[in-house]
Design goal:
The structure holds two protein chains of two kinds. By secondary structure, chain A is an all-alpha fold. Chain A is about 85% helix and about 0% strand. Chain A has twelve helices and no strands. In chain A, helix 2 packs antiparallel against helix 3 and helix 7 runs antiparallel to helix 11. The two termini of chain A are about 35 Å apart. Chain B is α/β, with parallel strands linked by helices. Chain B contains 13 helices and 14 strands. In chain B, the strands form three sheets. A six-stranded mixed β-sheet of chain B has the order 6-7-8-3-9-10, with helices on both faces. Chain B has a four-stranded antiparallel β-sheet with strand order 2-1-4-5, covered by helices on one side. In chain B, strands 12-13-11-14 form a four-stranded antiparallel β-sheet. Chain B starts with a strand and ends with a helix. The chains are: A mainly alpha, B alpha/beta.
Chain lengths: ~270, ~350
């Protein structure tokens, strides 16, 4: 057990180091920060504008219901936007996980070292996940900074559960993306296929609705969007957590199998 | 230390190796010699645990490769044909990573990395990013990677391929220095490499071990004992007839003799036994009035052995019988000449 943890740690450190050395990471980080910060401002503006109109309507006696909880609305909307942005970024992060190993012939080193495919896959996933958390962290701080003075009080529940949701979503997508990157040695193909797969999983909800019936229900349950949305509402639903974790385990399992298969295929 | 028995590997309908059997004793350097595509890499990949065998067993330090893969992986160092390098890491970081995944304890890591760096002469490049290293240095980092955990067995797939002559000598010396404490199996298609570095050789061709032994043994065993090269004058058939009377004569090759005057020939004769037949040979020729211009004892080169074992069947058969046919003569002179370029 200790050996396995030490192996995971070795892979984890090596991978993390390579993220901080790669120019691509900095480009992705810059892109992500600019885009999300921009959307945070835009979403806040829109919600505030909408709430002002709503208040104005009520004051003028045109109805409009209860006053809006602006911080909650901003956070919920922003988290769902950030989820969508991540859908484009995660495949780019996962595309190199194994394609690079294949190109550098280092799979042969890993496969002839006393380390299991699982340990390699877990180490890699942890490293890329830590990188994603590094991306999200400053943005989360920005949200706190923006909303801490707001009234009604800042919805801490949504903040924590929502960000947990982001991390779970990222882990699930990266794990599946890692599997796809282990299938061939072209990073572009891996990124594209991952994006397509994630898009399908994202919209399973709509597909389920159109299809209807028991099959539709199952599809709806497998949808990433549905579970992610419920987490961004601040609802810590165990079925959502289980679903994301299942995707993670599935990705790890398929990766380990696929790496074994590469050895059989090679002549 | 390394024990390979009846190993076979097939990919679909193609057979990569077929019933390969050989052993390597502790501390010995065993060379796998064979033309490209003979099955050397496949054999080594099975030994390293990278590929599963279709049939047969391979044991490293008593552990079966397929049954106890982790135990075997801890006990071998493996350098594939292309060194498996993380080019964005420095030499030191890379070796540290390899030492970790090979299970070197944290306390020993620094000493073992330093030792591997010193043994491979990489001191100056310790902090250099691998991407910036030349091919020769990368190959050395590849070897350092294979020895960093002090394994009892090391498998090197074509360790000197693509290096310049100076680097080749350095790598060979490095490999020789490993012997004694470590068992080394290396593959190559370069003959001088085998005679210079290996204690024993297994010649592989078309997936089979066609012969094995020490380089000297092989030369003796397969080249057929003693050999003489002669320059004589007279009628070919007459000379052949005279020579056949010499006891134990096994082979007779007519060599190219374009530059010689008419009726002058060059030929090579050999016997099965190691008894020196020079005296009888000279006596037979002189007493029968064959003009003798030159008589020289020649040693067989490993290349002769190799070519004899790996050239197409027809040529091998032809070589083992006395042959004066013009067609066979050209084939044989061709490869005999190649054999002597060393």
């Amino acid at each position: 057990m200790i050996t396995v943890l030490a192996n995971i740690d070795a892979i984890f450190r090596k991978e993390l180091q390579s993220y901080f050395k790669s120019p691509l990471s900095y480009i992705i980080a810059g892109f992500f920060w600019i885009l999300t910060a921009l959307f945070l401002v835009l979403v806040s503006q829109q919600v505030i504008q909408y709430a002002t109109q709503n208040d104005l309507g009520r004051q003028m006696g045109q109805g409009g219901g209860a006053p809006l909880d602006v911080p909650t609305l901003v956070l919920q909307n922003f988290l769902s936007v950030m989820g969508s942005i991540l859908l484009f970024i995660l495949p780019v992060l996962s595309m190199n996980l194994y394609t690079e190993e294949r190109k550098r012939h280092t799979l042969e080193l890993l496969a002839t070292s006393p380390i299991t495919n699982w340990a390699v896959a877990v180490g890699k996933l942890m490293a890329v996940l830590v990188f994603v958390i590094t991306l999200i962290f400053p943005i989360a701080m920005l949200e706190l900074f923006l909303l801490n003075a707001a009234k009604p009080a800042f919805p801490l529940q949504i903040f924590f559960v929502g960000h947990l949701g982001i991390i779970l979503l990222a882990a699930a997508v990266l794990s599946l993306g890692m599997f796809i990157s282990s299938l061939n040695d072209s990073a572009i193909v891996a990124a594209f296929l991952t994006f397509v797969l994630v898009l399908v999983l994202w919209i399973l909800d709509f597909l389920g609705q159109t299809l209807g019936g028991a099959g539709g229900e199952i599809l709806k349950h497998l949808s990433l969007l549905k579970h992610y949305t419920s987490l961004t509402q601040g609802m810590l639903d165990s079925s959502s957590v289980v679903l994301f974790v299942s995707y993670v385990v599935l990705g790890l399992f398929l990766t380990a199998q696929s790496i074994d298969l590469i050895r059989f295929q090679q002549s | 230390m390394i024990d390979v028995e009846h190993l076979s590997k097939t990919y679909g309908s193609t057979t990569a190796i077929n019933d390969v059997t050989f052993q390597a004793e502790p501390g010995e350097i065993l060379g796998l010699l064979g033309p490209n595509g003979a099955g050397k890499t496949t054999t080594m990949r099975i030994l390293s645990g990278y590929l599963p065998a279709s049939h047969g067993t391979a044991r490293v330090a008593g552990y079966e490769v397929h049954e106890s893969p982790m135990a075997v992986r801890q006990r071998i160092g493996y350098l594939p044909e292309t060194p498996p390098l993380y080019t964005d890491m420095t030499v030191e970081d890379y070796l540290n990573f390899v030492a970790r995944i090979k299970g070197v304890a944290a306390g020993d890591r620094a000493t073992k990395i330093t030792s591997a760096i010193e043994r491979c002469n990489l001191q100056e490049k310790r902090k250099v990013i691998i991407r910036k290293l030349s091919k020769g240095f990368r190959q050395r980092v590849g070897i350092a990677q294979a020895i960093v955990h002090d394994p009892p067995a090391i498998i090197l797939d074509e360790p000197t391929v693509g290096l310049d002559p100076r680097q080749i000598i350095e790598v060979r010396n490095l490999i020789k220095n490993l012997a004694g404490q470590t068992t080394v199996i290396l593959s190559t298609h370069i003959l001088p490499e085998v005679s210079m570095t290996c204690d024993r050789v297994a010649i592989i061709n078309k997936g089979r071990v066609v012969s094995s032994g020490t380089p000297d043994d092989l030369m003796l065993q397969l080249s057929g004992g003693m050999r003489y090269e002669l320059e004589v004058e007279g009628d070919r058939s007459y000379i052949t007839e005279r020579l056949q009377r010499v006891a134990d004569l096994k082979e007779l090759h007519w060599l190219a003799a374009d530059e010689l005057p008419e009726q002058r020939h060059r030929l090579r004769v050999s016997t099965e036994t190691n008894a020196d037949f020079g005296k009888q040979l000279a006596a037979a020729l002189v007493s029968d009035h064959v003009g003798l211009y030159e008589m020289r004892k020649v040693g067989a080169s490993l290349e002769d052995v190799f070519l004899q074992l790996t050239t197409e069947e027809t040529a091998v058969e032809a070589a083992s019988t006395i042959e004066t046919d013009a067609m066979a003569e050209t084939i044989q002179t061709d490869y005999i000449q190649t054999g002597e370029t060393e």
